[in-house]
Design a protein that fits this description.
Layout: E1 9-18, E2 21-27, E3 37-38, E4 41-43, H1 50-62, E5 65-79, E6 82-95, E7 103-109, H2 124-131
Length: 132
Amino acid sequence: MHSDAVPAVDVAAAVIRRGGLVLLARRAPGRAMAGLWEFPGGRVEPGETPAQALVRELREEMNVEASVGRQLHSETCSTDRGVFRILFLEVHGIEGEPALNDHDALEWVTPAAMADMPLAPADRGMAALLAS
């Protein structure tokens, strides 16, 4: 039996700020949307809260321990891989220096500079909010 109402997959994304800059990560070659910049994060697994998922993802992807705060924004997007609901969470701080385990580049950028970067489509709304 097929249903058109495919449940959205929740993805937690980190808004990490430091001195007026925001951390973005570039999707590595060989991955979906390779070369596009995004707020780091990943899929919320069953039984996890978005905050728990984000702590785990940032540990796995960047070797940092994150202190996660409130949700700032959400965005739903459809791709050829399904429907995703991106939950943008404020990160109050990270311990450790972000490492490149999952991405091919990391950059601290001003919110205004994000407008000129090739961002993943689901991340453009959050970038615009930060710049406003």
